[in-house]
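quick one, 591 residues, struct below
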Amino acid sequence: MKARLGLGSLESRIYMIFTLMIFVAVFIMQLVSFRFTINALRSSTLENNRTLLGQLVTQIDSYISGMEQISQAVQDDPEIIEYMLNGANSGSPSYLSIQQRLGNYIKARNDISDIIIIGRDGLVITADPDSNLNPWTSVSEKDWYLEAMDAGGQTVVSSSYVQNLVEGRYSWVVSLSREILSVDKNESLGVMLVDLKFNRIKELCQSLVVGRKGYNFIIDSDRNYIFHPTQQLVYSNIRSEPIDSIYALLKNTEDEFFFADKKYFMIETSDITGWFVVSVTHESDIVTDWRYVQISYSLLGLILFLIVGLATNRISSGITKPVRKLQDIMKSVDTGEFRLVGSIRATDEIKELAREYDTMVGHIRNLMEANTREQELKRKSDLKALQAQINPHFLYNTLDSIIWMGEMGQNKEVVLMTSALSKLFRISISKGREIIKITDEIAHVESYLTIQKMRYKDKFEYSIDIDPDLYTHTILKITLQPLVENAIYHGIKEVDHKGLIQITGEELDGNIKLEVVDNGKGMTTEELEELNQNLDTSSNSHQLSQQGMGVRNVHERIQLYFGKEYGLSYISTPGSGTRITVLIPSETLEA
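---
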């Protein structure tokens, strides 16, 4: 599992790549969808705002038009024209009638603050009989008065300002003023002033807004504020609006709005007043449930990502599972198992790879089996050839001894040695078998010892003590004889005292342990190490003695048949003799 989760595995790479691609795709899709939603909402909101702005301008124009009708009615009133033309005094019945008529206009419209008529001779008619003009106020110097005199009888709409004309009144108003002309339009009779209550315009501007933070304001062509919801802050320069950008938008007919300080600004022009009505929409009001939209898109993206992630994991696992199976089977090559893939559920490419692998493993198996058989046959041939080299030397020495005893007339000894030699070679041949019973191997080595004891007279004695239960077990033929031969020639022959060779055997932990012990001269540590090295290395046989080749022949044959854990081992002490141990499995092979 750890290998599967590693970043180097095919499955993890496929999963990571696909997951990254899906994450990017989902992220881009969410981003595009989110932006599309925002843009759609923005367009819808701004379009709605433009509609409301148009309605606001229409209502303002309608309101101002209604006020103009009042001013026109005053302009067309014959009694007012006659009174101003004759210049009657303020106490005349005509004055009181006109004053009452102006008062009726104010009563009929609660959005009119005051109506005042200023005659050419300085006579002032107000709608309120109790009101008086401020003594320090010069009416002829007022902007609304001068503009009305220059307008030629047309109505002039002022900016918002604090009206201080009447004593004790200081109200925010927007004034409509126009020059009063004679019937023939040739003579100026004075100026009429209609003060509109500022709160009516405020109500109109505040009634048609978008969102909690949206608002409307009005400016004129001279950059004066007609209305602003925070009028005092604007006039105090505590708060400001992007006036330059607003006027630039008026000149650019292609753009419908501009964005600044997280606010959208839209402008409409009043045809009657020439005012610029500006609608302001805050960005946060575009999407009122902004957090809900964010959470919805996040949950949708997470769910989509999880679903596609699970599908990607399944797909990547389906692709890599047969690859992992093939990888695990290929690892068996390292252990020497050479397992086959066989049938596998995978894509055509992996199936083809598995078939090629099975074909390759089949060829390798055949080659290895052929090579093993060849090496085994070669090794056995080499060992048999070596064995053939040893036997003629022993035969030559034994025959030489028989001849010598015959010449000496020792006929009984000749018969005994010849009989032992015959028995020795009969067992050695064993009809070509390599595996014989232990009882036959004992007879073989006993015949050899008989011959050697006759040759060396009283040079040594021997004893054979092998557990009878082992007699029926099998052993490689000619296993003990080379070891006894080595004990005679390299051990007992080199000492002055009478030698003793002991051959023992027992079963130990499922194995058979045979030992050949002599009381000869023994070996030094260096000689023992060299002997063990000769056993375990493939040194040139010509550098060893006949006895050395025989011992190594036994060791190699045991390991060839039974494995590297079996074979010969030496223990030796200088002057005390040598112990050679043979270890073979106790399992009985076919003799």
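Confidence is low (pLDDT under 50) at residues 1-5.
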